[in-house]
Amino acid sequence: MTQPTMDVVGIGNAIVDVIAHAEDSFLVDNALAKGTMTLIDAAQAEALYGAMGAGVEVSGGSAANTMVGLALLGGAAGYVGKISEDTLGGVFGHDIGAAGVRFETAASADGAPTARCLILVTDDAQRTMNTYLGACVELGPDDIDEAFIAAAKITYMEGYLWDPPGAKQAFRKAQGIAAAHGRRVSLSLSDPFCVERHRAELRELVEHHVDILFANEDEILSLYQVGDFDTALQQVSQHCEIAALTRSEHGSVVVGHGEVHVIGAAPVARVKDTTGAGDLYAAGFLYGITHDFDLARCGRLGALAAGEVISHFGPKPESDIAQLVAASARPMAA
Description:
Helix content is 38%, strand content 22%.
């Protein structure tokens, strides 16, 4: 069996993020569910884009953010996601490549435009996401290259892929390739509403095909339909090798290999925007796993990476986060 040349390949919805500040009243006036991700159509995207304030446009998407974070930490990352041959598609491809991520998925020459996510950030740093998937729905099994998947130690996929049928098939194909080559499979549950839409299938994935699971507290409670975190923790510990469960300001809990680690949140002077927090936590954790860190240190690196991204506006690191790898060797308060 050939040795992997990448640490992680991420598969997800290739999206350009449009991020703007909003008042709570704007969310109410536009019937937006605060703190969640909602799928919208082209007409809704156009109307909301016209109503929201001035914003910044950056390449994004959950798994893409994680791969960028992994690369900036010093890891070897690849990415699979569908874009269109349009302006935003060019922006996406250039940005992710400039971060050091291998991105080889062929762009669509016709059809829907590149996806965009309209992110409204309120004063309490909560982000409300409204996503037009566009070209993302065209991701399918033909976009999954066996050699590319086999070249990574871990294949990391976002739960959002379970919405478009073609992407779900791509997910299944990639999972099968990774398993056949003796590689690990990792999943992020992405959003509690996503879990609610596909609970039975995601449960089956977690119980039988996922080695490393990422979820926040709401997502893991939704997955197991329980009311308390400890019960969900006990259940997930029986279903996959490792689970990293984030709890906002309360840090995270990592369970695996018969161990349970409670990891404190990284100290942040002021939380400005939680966009990308879970994505960067996964980046730090996956870097640690692929560089043979123990589980506690993986969790600390995830917390430090998440702490950096919530200290400023936008889902990408603004500082040299590679220095966080050394910092993660030191214990943090629980």
